[in-house]
Specification:
The protein is of the alpha+beta class. It contains 1 helix and 10 strands, in the order αββββββββββ. The protein has 2 domains: about 1-35; about 45-139, Rieske Iron-sulfur Protein (3-layer Sandwich), CATH 2.102.10.10. It is about 25% helix and about 30% strand. The strands form 3 sheets. Strands 5-6-7-8 form a 4-stranded antiparallel β-sheet, with no helix packed on it. It has a 3-stranded antiparallel β-sheet with strand order 1-10-9, with no helix packed on it. The longest helix has about 30 residues, at about 1-35. The protein is elongated, with a radius of gyration of 21 Å. The structure holds FE2/S2 (inorganic) cluster. FE2/S2 (inorganic) cluster binds next to loops.
Length: about 140
């Protein structure tokens, strides 16, 4: 009976250790991949035009979610939600390929947000923006 007690105690300790290791491993990955929380962020964001060279993307918080500005090769600007339309992970800009990759399930989007591969069911949402005096205003 005492041996069973020790086994139970050891089992509880190992189970707790496994849960702690899982929490330490999974939580950072979740925080990286999950959409930003709904903490209050600006409904209008100003970004200097010079911060986005041709072929580059700049990520920022807009209305409580991740968003991105892209200056396409050739110069065109576009503002998009950076939240994947599949299950809500945050997309990454692949400068070499000039496309967005969703790291969760391999979704790909053009710089305009159009789906080119993977499971996303619809394009990245476009955001309204204007440009005046060297400042891009999103929102
Ligand atoms: S969440 Fe982006 S492809 Fe699944």
């Amino acid at each position: 009976m005492e041996s069973n007690g020790r086994r139970t105690f050891l089992g509880v300790c190992l189970g707790g250790l496994a849960a702690a290791v899982a929490a330490v491993t999974v939580w950072p990955a979740y925080r990286y991949l999950a959409p930003r929380s709904t903490r209050a962020t600006a409904a209008r964001v100003d970004i200097p035009e010079k911060d986005i060279p041709e072929g580059e993307a700049k990520f920022f918080e807009f209305n409580g979610a991740s968003a991105v500005l892209v200056r396409k090769r050739g110069g065109g600007l576009i503002a998009l939600s950076a939240v994947c339309t599949h299950l809500g992970c945050i997309v990454q800009w692949e400068k070499d390929k000039q496309d967005f990759l969703c790291p969760c399930h391999g979704g790909h989007y053009t710089p305009d947000g159009v789906v080119t591969a993977g499971p996303p069911p619809k394009p990245l949402a476009k955001l309204p923006f204007s440009v005046a005096n060297g400042i891009i205003t999103v929102g």
